Amino acid sequence: MDILVINCGSSSLKFQLIDVETEEVIVKGICERIGIENSRFVFQASGRNTVDLDISMKNHADSMKILLTYLTDPQHGVISSLNEIAAVGHRVVHGGERFASSTIIDETVIKAIEECAELAPLHNMANLTGILACQEMMPDTPMVAVFDTAFHQTMPEEAYLYGIPFSYYEKYKIRKYGFHGTSHAYVADRTAKILRKDSKELKLIVCHLGNGASITAVKHGKSVDTSMGLTPLEGLIMGTRSGDIDPSVLEYIGHKEHKNLEELMKVLNQSSGLLGLSGGVSSDFRDIATAYEKGDSNAIRALNAFNYRVAKYIGAYAAAMNGVDAICFTAGIGENSALVRELICNYLTYLGVFLDHDKNEIRGKEQIITSDQSKVKVVVIPTNEELMIARETYQKITEL
Ligand code: AMP
User: Fold this and answer.
1) pTM value?
2) Known catalytic membership, residue 148
3) Which of 62, 148, 225, 296 does the annotation list as catalytic?
4) What count of other Cβ atoms lies within 10 Å of the Cβ of residue 44?
5) Is residue 13 scored above 90 in pLDDT?
6) What is the CATH number of the domain that holds 264?
């Protein structure tokens, strides 16, 4: 049974067609620069040459049309009719308190996603555009929304409330929501399998270290705390985002540099993190790591701060769960950087973490990277949000 997975950003549409029975990816690709000049369509069918085209796409509906045409194209296509697609799973970033699990999309759900857009305007509206474009082209195919926030809805009140007047929560639902939930859930599940344990017996700390980065305490299979908050700005130092900061810094910089709140938020979201701390070296971790290896003091400063923040959160979450059995690394940096994993684990000998340095050289493969005597295991798990979305979608449509 084939499930189409759609992940829409404001100017991109990523897709995968997955056979949920074999979990094989039949085709994957991306529509980039939608609504901008030089848009591009990449279509990679398993075992075939990649189609890579400069093709005009004015909006997400245009992209959907091109994608669906290619899926059934006699030369490049992978299915003979769109009827072979059993359902479409859509990634939706913010589900607020409304959605603690994935859901079949209907008019009410569309309205609720729209309402949640107040909390994540750019993301949710882009996701919604993708859903509407897809519904237009495939009106009879069931669609499922899979939310980044849903996995974290199990957080207890003491973890999700901010120390501000409770009335703001009551009136506006200001609280910690957390993101990357699909990734954290997938990695926690894979870790239990690799450790040959029931997830209900495990206390895990999942470090999703990519361009966006977040860390989650997963106790007995459930998220009990996570570093991102009301928005994906809180928590770890990221590519361009600051992560945790004293809110008074905004007022201070605002005064000194005559910036309004919107401009200040732009600084925290777009010119901070590794990019800002390195004095502009790069927001891309690979550039930072290359400069670090050459002894560049700007890159050393940024990388040290990045690692220190992750180690501090690991300590906090080990305390929150009163212990930890395994620490998991995933996403672009977590899966690929032996350097970051080593530097973070150097902080963790008090927990009984001992790396096996040869095993830590692994890139992008599932592996335990600690030595046999390590009290807490450390594992590398390549994340697979698309597969998780396909599984969730399949589960929802079979419940129908
Ligand atoms: P993601 O958001 O998960 O796609 O991760 C993007 C981040 O992962 C960027 O900062 C990349 O520089 C980093 N990254 C990707 N591949 C590698 C690699 N082979 N080694 C180190 N970092 C990498």
Assistant:
1) 0.95
2) yes
3) 148
4) 16
5) yes
6) 3.30.420.40
